[in-house]
Specification:
The chain has about 230 residues and is α/β, with parallel strands linked by helices. It has a single domain (about 5-225), classed as TIM Barrel. The protein has eight helices and eight strands, in the order αβαβαββαβαβαβαβα. An eight-stranded parallel β-sheet has the order 7-6-5-4-3-2-1-8.
Length: about 230
């Protein structure tokens, strides 16, 4: 079996799991969008997934995303890029106006930099540190309303939803309470009318827990290892 065939087969399995999970939740399969997390994987792996019908790809590192985008500028099918990693102000220039969705806006300073640098409309998600973990990025719960309010002052950036990386738990079912908490936060904040804020998306769930995330309302699931296998380290 070739590498491309392996990726295509893994994609088929993940898509079926997504469809099954959505069905159990009483939702159509198309209500959940798969973001294939291609960080630390070569551009050829992205090409193989593209050939298998995958459109959305997630990257954690701004400069790696920049380089991968360049690898596809010569023509052919183009990935729809998502930035899902922590944001630093000096890396925003590689992302604003150049990706379909930035998942990890966590403070007003970064939001203002995105808005300043985006040459056109830029969709964003607010990353929420739902469990208050010191080692993780994301806006603390109490800061979310003010961050959503800040989108009203933007010219180009819009907030289309919330994102979560839950605390690690070997029992994926235990992460459901964090997914449910993000959904509850989304529902409460969506009841408040704000310019440039729609909150239609919930980005939550990865290779080990996306089934549970879909059960709690995920509209975007970020799956890497289940598609591409173990990542190269070092």
């Amino acid at each position: 079996m070739t590498r491309a065939q392996d990726i295509a087969g893994r994609l088929t399995e993940v898509r079926q799991q997504i469809a099954d999970a959505a069905g159990r939740a009483g939702r159509p399969a198309e209500s959940v969008r798969l973001v294939a997390v291609s960080k630390k994987m070569p551009a050829d792996d992205v090409r193989a997934a593209l050939a298998a019908g995958q459109l959305d790809f997630g990257e954690n590192y701004a400069q790696e995303l920049r380089d991968k985008r360049a690898a596809f500028e010569s023509g052919g099918a183009l990935p729809r890029w998502h930035y899902i990693g922590p944001l630093q102000r000096n890396k925003v220039k590689f992302l604003a106006g150049q990706v379909a969705l930035i998942h990890s806006v966590a403070d007003v300073d970064i939001l203002e930099e995105i808005d300043r640098r985006a040459g056109a409309a830029q969709d964003c998600l607010v990353q929420v540190n739902i469990a208050g973990e010191a080692q993780k990025s994301g806006a603390p719960l109490e800061a979310v309303p003010a961050l959503l309010d800040a989108f009203a002052r933007c010219e180009r950036a819009s907030c289309v939803g919330l994102m979560l990386i839950p605390p690690f738990d070997a029992d994926a079912a235990q992460t459901r309470r964090h997914f449910a908490a993000l959904r509850g936060l989304r529902d409460r904040e969506a009841a408040i009318a704000r310019p440039r804020v729609t909150l239609r998306e919930l980005s939550m769930g990865m290779s080990g827990d996306f089934v549970e995330a879909i059960a709690e309302g995920a509209t975007l699931v970020r799956v890497g290892t289940a598609i591409f296998g173990a990542r190269v380290t070092g």
